[in-house]
Write a structure and sequence with these properties.
It contains 16 helices and 19 strands. It is of the alpha+beta class.
Length: about 500
């Protein structure tokens, strides 16, 4: 009788939902794909929104909200849209949403760095409720890639007077595999599986992003088995995990699609002198950064484009530390022991920024440079330093795209509000090469132009390119199927299965 009662209780009790536990180290700025410029916001938006096309696990472009696409000629692209997609409020996704998203991105009221890719578009036309025509001004090398920008809901936002300040940015409506259930500053973010997701309802009912502003907190959560996926530092991998940890987590390591850099405010008189920038570059020991920060789990970064791609210029080498030459250049520029070169470096407290800054401070001191540190919480750093461009130098990281687009960072036009060229870089030769490459659809010719751009940028030292770290992820071994990919281990997360509690 007791056994029967237990069976009845079990059968009548609701199943405990399977939950994927992840972490975020900073508050997202806006959960809106066309306004998200920080990693945390992008991390959240990718679950909530979809684009017309996306990458598969091997980095091939495939349809997503589109069911088919084709070029009529070199400048005309047709998207045939899926007719089985609904927004999370039940409204159907149609061509109106695509046109609205395009018009919003190019609107003068919107400040977004992503608009640069769309300036090559002549027009976007609705041919019928599920067909879009995109006409380019000329053959454009990223004609497909720009449509990896996620789509916004026209019916929800068409009457919005100020999208930059809209409530939508904290309570978005999407077509993605998950919907936003709970969001508050400096607290956990909760996503709920979208039962009407057009591929299929995700196997995991819920995702909780635990707000963990420092890496040590994330590591403690991993060790106590409260996270399913987390990033490990090289120190943790080498010295701080044991057999019990490895029994519970699979370790995936690969070169990250990011680099760290020190960027200068080129509008500042201090950094207009190329000798000063070169001296600072020569004072840095990048190999030491790799060894101390990453225990060898990384490599020196030599420039702005990803190693292994055609745009990467293997003939450009990172400078070796040369303290004597650094001092000589500074002396030429008017600085010596009695009048040392001084500046302030601003960075975020999240990640390894503060540790990197301290090592750099020590290295530069050997060349007689006095570098003061300003270390801030990420959102404060973004809002009071980066966006108003209120800095002398910054220490940051940047994501490397599979297909580079130099315009948004390195073209002088991208110094405008909302652009990524916040250091104020301007080289007329680079501007011309970028514009020429935009109209070059032959891959070999395009790569040759980008290798030239690579060399010019490195020679100018607007950034000091530092390190490309390895990405080291720990994943709960109970989750399946997990596999490595050019676009990351979570490429098939909609299919992940985790045993319920």
């Amino acid at each position: 009788m007791k056994t029967l009662l237990l069976i009845l209780i079990f059968c009548l009790s609701p199943m405990i939902a399977s939950t994927l536990h992840l972490s975020i180290s900073a508050n997202p700025s806006r959960i809106n794909p066309i306004l998200s410029t920080d990693a945390t916001s992008s991390q959240i938006t990718q679950w909530i929104f979809n684009a017309l096309v996306t990458y598969d696990k091997d980095a091939n472009i495939i349809p997503e909200l589109a069911k088919r696409y084709y070029f009529v000629d070199e400048t005309t692209l047709i998207f045939e849209l899926r007719d089985d997609v609904k927004w999370s409020d039940g409204e159907p996704f149609t061509a109106k949403d695509v046109l609205f998203t395009y018009e919003t991105i190019i609107s003068p009221k919107i400040f977004t760095p992503y608009s640069s890719g769309f300036m090559h578009v002549l027009h976007v036309k609705i041919l019928d409720p599920y067909t879009i025509e995109v006409k380019y001004k000329y053959p454009y090398f990223k004609a497909l890639e720009i449509w990896m920008m996620e789509v916004l809901p026209e019916h929800s936002l068409r009457l919005e007077s100020d999208l930059m300040r809209s409530k939508f940015n904290q309570s978005p409506l999407g077509t993605g595999s998950y919907t936003l259930e709970a969001f508050a500053t400096s607290k956990n973010i909760v996503l709920k599986a979208n039962a009407n997701y057009f591929i299929h309802k995700p196997n995991l009912d819920q995702i909780i992003f635990h707000y963990l502003p420092d890496r040590s907190s994330e590591f403690l959560m991993l060790k106590s088995k409260k996270l399913d996926v987390g990033m490990l530092t090289p120190l943790q991998l080498e010295r701080q995990i044991d057999e019990d940890f490895r029994k519970n987590y699979a370790i995936y390591e690969d070169i990250a699609h990011t680099y760290s850099y020190m960027g200068f405010n080129l509008k500042s008189e201090k950094f207009k002198d190329a000798r000063v920038r070169e001296a600072l570059s020569l004072a840095i020991d990048r190999e030491e950064l790799v060894d101390i920060l990453y225990f060898g789990h990384g490599k020196v970064c030599t420039g702005p484009f990803m190693p292994g791609t055609g745009a990467f210029n293997q003939n450009v080498k990172a400078p070796k530390q040369d303290i004597a030459k650094a001092k000589a250049l500074l002396k030429e520029a008017g600085y010596d022991e009695n009048h040392p070169f001084e500046f302030e470096l601003s960075t975020s407290a999240s990640g390894s920024g503060s540790y990197s800054a301290q090592i750099l401070q020590h290295q530069l001191k050997r060349a007689g440079v006095v570098m003061k540190l300003r270390i801030m919480e990420w959102q404060a750093f973004l809002n009071t330093v980066i966006l108003p461009r209120n800095f002398e130098a910054v220490l940051m990281g940047w994501s490397l795209g599979l297909k580079p687009d130099a315009y948004s960072i390195w073209h002088s036009e991208s110094q405008r509000k909302g652009g990524f060229n916040f250091v104020g870089y301007h080289n007329e030769k680079v501007d011309a090469l970028i514009k020429k490459a935009e109209k070059t659809v032959n891959q070999e010719k395009f790569d040759a132009l980008y290798r030239e751009i690579f060399a010019h940028i490195v020679a100018d030292n607007p950034y000091l390119f530092l390190v490309i770290p390895n990405s080291i992820a720990a994943v709960n071994k109970e989750i399946s199927p997990v596999s490595t990919s050019l676009i990351g281990i979570m490429h098939n997360a909609v299919d992940w299965i985790k045993p319920e509690i």
